[in-house]
């Protein structure tokens, strides 16, 4: 078994993108939560150019940037491909991945917002979201949080 470590942060949609890809594919790894306001020496060592997460460390060698990491996973573990095997499907998947990243991985970012909405409303003692007025959005938020792998990896409110 390879020594695989993912440096990420629960607040980062890019880190969540890689975390969920690893979990969905069943690839064992160690997760290291980074504090973005106080970055670890290891993170700075592994990504000296951008000092950003996610960073996947494979046997002591870092791989940076979420799309690069996904491509690495596909090539390293072909038995667990995160992308379709046929060229047209792969092209469409990469197009969607690129589009999603340009839009800050909309579902993941939105899912994170959906997860924290009730907590934010509770702290502010203010209703920010009207579920009756936005029924489709409310339905989407509930369905997103019901996906087992998503539900099991959402950060706690506490």
UniProtKB/TrEMBL annotation:
This is Glutathione S-transferase. Belongs to the GST superfamily. Tau family. GO terms for biological process: glutathione metabolic process; toxin catabolic process. Is involved in the conjugation of reduced glutathione to a wide number of exogenous and endogenous hydrophobic electrophiles. Keywords: Cytoplasm, Detoxification, Transferase. It is found in: Cytoplasm, Cytosol. Pfam families: GST_N_3. It catalyses: RX + glutathione = an S-substituted glutathione + a halide anion + H(+). It comes from the Eukaryota.
